[in-house]
Write a structure and sequence with these properties.
3-stranded antiparallel beta sheet, mainly alpha, 140 residues
Length: 140
């Protein structure tokens, strides 16, 4: 004879967990969409992947990362408006990289949620979830 009270409590707990997971999934998707939109906005405003370098303390150059053994230098000058625009473009690039990193982290969380949900319908996959999750964390 089974104890229906215990089963009912477990069912209620599982249902509450599944409802919370569904809500978390919705919030996760919205956050990823918001981050993607923010990255696109930054891209449309203009970004520059470069480091500022002041020659003689007043002439701004933008030094791009090395690509195929070449490094591009762009002269900006000392005009305050041009300097401010160039530095703002660099900051937007840094912010865009941060947004991409946040979105990547959330996508990994979304993948894990998807795998966990799939494992709920296949009991043979449940035991592998922990090891798979630990491997992903190690790579991150």
């Amino acid at each position: 004879m089974t104890n229906h009270t215990t089963t009912d409590k477990q069912r209620a707990a599982v249902n509450a967990s599944l409802a919370a997971a569904a809500k978390h999934l919705d919030l996760l998707c919205v956050e990823i969409d918001n981050l993607d939109a923010a990255a696109q906005d930054l891209k449309h405003q203009g970004t520059t992947d470069a480091s500022p370098y002041y020659r003689q303390g007043k002439y701004l150059y933008l030094i791009s990362p090395t690509f195929q053994g070449q490094r591009e230098r762009q002269y900006i000058g000392s005009d305050p408006a041009k300097v401010q625009a160039a530095l703002a473009s660099i900051e937007r690039h840094k912010r865009r990289e941060e947004v991409h990193a946040q979105a990547k982290k959330l996508r990994l969380e979304l993948d894990q949620l998807e795998e966990t949900a799939a494992a709920l319908t296949d009991s043979a996959r449940i035991s592998g979830l922990y090891y798979h999750h630990m491997e992903r964390q190690r790579r991150w």
